[in-house]
Amino acid sequence: MRLGRYVMPVSAALGFGFLYIPILILVIYSFNASKLVTVWGGFSTQWYVELFRDPQILDAAKLSFKIATASATLALVLGVAAAMTLVRFRWFKGRTLLTGMVAAPLVMPEVITGLSLLLLFVALDNLLGWPAGRGVTTIILAHATFGMAFVAVIVQARLRDMDRTLEEAAMDLGARPLTVFFTITIPSIAPALVAAWLLAFTLSLDDLVIASFVSGPGSSTLPMVVFSKVRLGISPDINALATLMIMIVALGGAIGFWQIRRSMRGRSSR
Amino acid sequence: MTSTGLQDKRWLDPDATPFIEFRNVSKTYQGVPAVKDVNLSIYQNELFCLLGGSGSGKTTLLRMLAGFETPTSGSVWIDGVDVTDWPPYERPVNMMFQSYALFPHMTVYDNIAYGLKRDGMPKPEIRERVEELLGLVRLSGFANRKPEQLSGGQRQRVALARALAKRPKVLLLDEPLGALDKNLREDTQLELIKIQESLGMTFIVVTHDQEEAMTLATRIGVMDEGYLVQTDEPHTIYEYPSSKYVADFIGDINLFECVVTETESGDLSLYSAEIEAGLCPPTSFAAPLNQTLWYAIRPEKMRLSREPVDADNVLSGIVHEIAYLGDFSVYWVDLDSGFRIRVSRPNISRLDHFAESWDERVYITWGQDAGVVLTQ
User: How far apart are CA B142 and CA B165, in angstroms?
Assistant: First the structure.
């Protein structure tokens, strides 16, 4: 009986340990003074300094942020359009099928998404001459494609829960549908939009597989550079880079989560 | 309590032009009828109440006037114009929603100004109009609050101010007082009447609360299962209901199924097998012999006594139960036939000897014209 009270904390510790101990080790070793990755040689921030002296990594980081910003924004616009269509329009034939299809990229293997997009871009290049070759544009388009699926799923859920009488009230007061959308609908779902954008942003920042398929010469994203470096042997500055990326992603996740929480509270207080 | 004088009863004038008209309006949702062939004329400056239970079609009718629903057949007219296919943002009506539908991300000021901004009104005029409306609903000083910082009654008043802001020809109110508690509701009812009279607008109120409809309305339209079953002034609806449904829905009533018979002297009479008694029909009653109909009598129109009394209608029974409600008491009396009827009695004096009359024999009497005869 006595043991009973320890079961919960112990199982929680085991679960969280399994999740976070590897990350914690990585963070600790990013402050390692030794050049050997597995041997502790005292505290140092030299790998961070070295990281910021490496032009290859800095360029890749800049490129990744640019791609993530552009693709998340594009994904947001497309995803909101898809969600509005699926939620707001009256029932039409095939709506259930389309709702399922919008979410399908969430479970699609990345290899297949990447390969199919590569085939599409090559075919488009041959037929229309756009996008010319593979590079930043194709990565942005590819990331927007799967980011849009996440945006559509998040925004759909929020739109379904939204009080439709708000839009009716606005229309009743003389607002045309487009005005209603920008003055009532968008502010009502704003937290979900922020969360969806951040999710699309971090997904783009993380992606290695799809980017590898659709990138071209001179357009290596940060994960691609990291991966190619690791293949030549792990150097401690990669730990420092990984630590920084974890921070950014965690921050984005936290803000997104907080926004979703806020939107839930807004709903319950209504 | 009606709010307008005799000179305003335009519906009695056959030449008056209606301000709002539903012409043969029906609405079907995926094969399920919600509103069935409604014909209704509402006149300027009326405070018209649509009364009915849930699912009676009253809200659907209101939403068709606001433009949120399109009739399956028939047409809707406002001020002589067919607006059946007009979108909500072009109609000269505004609506106060049951949930108030205040925009949560805007202040009270911006909520009220929303419709005025859509009209492109200059800012100083908007400010002036909003201040005036805030004064009207007694919320001056609340302009910068967010809806979540207001009480239910305050939100209700903001919703009213927002709906009044554009000075619409017609104001639609969907269960406007539903969320308020009883005392606040009574105050607000009188306030609504005052506002309606001072602004000279046409109000159409949807409610399921018959007391509210009686208090507010110049006329009441009673709806049941999509049909508009009776449209009349509150007094007429209560005293002369057109059907068993209306009689039962508005207030309490005792209903006896009867057949038309004849007395030895040749006068028409009624006999009810349910109460095993004959009834004296109202003056100017006319119906074919042996027709089945219903005699309806309200509990407060009957008198109770311990001694037999001579009257047009006399029934006798045993008091089964007495419910003391403060202002009056309701007596359930079991007639000798086993039929139970309810009689109400105002509590005029504090010590009422009648209150101790359980299981006693009492006599119930009423005059010839206290009851009404219903054929449907």
Answer: 16
